[in-house]
Design goal:
This protein is an alpha+beta fold and 336 residues long. The protein folds into two domains: 183 residues, no CATH class; 134 residues, Reverse transcriptase/Diguanylate cyclase domain (Alpha-Beta Plaits, 2-Layer Sandwich). α3 packs antiparallel against α4, α5 packs antiparallel against α6 and α8 packs across α9.
Length: 336
Amino acid sequence: MRKQLRALVAARRERAGDAAFQAACLFACAGLIGLGYDLSGGPGEDLALSLAVDASMVLFAMAIGSLPWCRWPRPATLGLAVIALAGVSLSHLAGLVPLATYGIWFVLIFVWIGTWHPPGTSYLMCPVAVLAYVVPFALDAPEGVIASGLISIPTAVLIGETIARRSRALRRAEAAKDEALAALTRANVTDDLTGLGNRRRANSLLDSLEDGDALAILDLDHFKRVNDTLGHHRGDEVLQELGEFLLRTVRDHDTVARYGGEEFIVVIRQAGTDATAVVERILTGWRELSPPATLSAGIAMKTPGQTWSDTFSAADASLYRAKELGRDRAVLQPAS
């Protein structure tokens, strides 16, 4: 559960970073387009002011890109929307944004809000948008401003809310698909009885052996006797109990698998001289549970020039030696 919560928080913070990045791109594009218009002689007598505003937008975009948004909660990015709304309002007040295109900027800002924020956020931002819209007309409202606002602001909010709901539905569908694929992947490499990796996972582990890794083959002693005297149901219970024990005992669950029957493998990464001690702890812990069948183990080190098949054969020979010596013990392949 904690791992899932951490993953959820990380995903949300990554999304905050993506939202801020897109906002930075929008600010930069608006500023660059404005600069191009300025330099082409568009603003006329307001050239100096227009250049200053457009250059400020580009610099602000660079500042946004330099901030650690991924460390902050996603609602922090709403500050960018407030700044954008204020910027459009002040630009219109300065005569840089004509009334004909004034409402369009509000719609674009709410498209961004809906894309990156959950449903309901557009409604919460509506009062801010209304305030930003009417500020330039506080003293003198041209004809048609009220009608324009009554169309632009509700349209912007509804578009933002529609996009937010659609985005949430898409994210949920994608999350469900990813979860289903992950479950299918786990099932594909998981042994139904023990909960450990299955033979397919075991083969993958063997393929992944590197020089310096140790391979341990574990085998239940006299397991046939358990099945014959106590029944196959009890035999399955023993395998389940061993699977649960290994999941508790082996630190890295991805390095243990059921190879087949009552035989299991454990890969000890870069074991050094600790391989035998690690396996002995496994055998001792299992023995302390007073199971109807103890464990024997054969251990081999993967050495340069060996294939995984060579290492497996060496570990299997060590397991055979452990059985010969009386079982319930671990034997390490002698160094060659």
